[in-house]
Amino acid sequence: MATVNMKSLMLMPRKSLKTKAAFRLWLGTALLCLCTAAAAHRFHAAITDISVNARTGNTEIIHTLMAHDVEALLTQRHQRRFDMAGAEDERLLRQYIEQQFYLAAPGGRRLQLQWIGIKVDAESVIVYQESSAAAVQKGALIHNSMLIDVLHDQSNTVNLTNNGKVRTWLFGRKHIEQILP
Description:
The protein is an alpha+beta fold. It has 2 domains: 6-38; 44-179, no CATH class. It contains 4 helices and 9 strands, in the order H-H-E-E-H-H-E-E-E-E-E-E-E. The radius of gyration is 22 Å and the shape is globular. The model is unreliable at 1-17 and 30-39 (pLDDT under 50).
């Protein structure tokens, strides 16, 4: 995200700019940078990829969340700063994810998802889960309310790959559960 030092903008000597047009161009560019920085993160989204590992038969789940959204969530819930490299902070994230995302068999029985781990970088938190159960079947339920409880405009996308075909569902405040056709 671009940052602009307002003090340097105010101290820019106008006489160093030869014409009014050049000053307007400079001012317009500075304002554009400010607007871009302010609008850099106006949406909140997460992507979940679900697929069946052909070798093991396990259902693999990969959640990709924006790092600053995860940090805001955990800070709001626990009133402290977080470092996702720490085991305690990962445990708190795990508890949250397991409450907010789950799969259920057609009969309604919630499937056990094994926590594999996380990968964190400056932009994203990637969560890995797995189930030995056949989660990808007609009538199975996907519940995905991750971050919706704290970010009202949160939109979650779930991509399901099965037999080489990809299907996509969108989850939001009004749609946190969907049944596989």
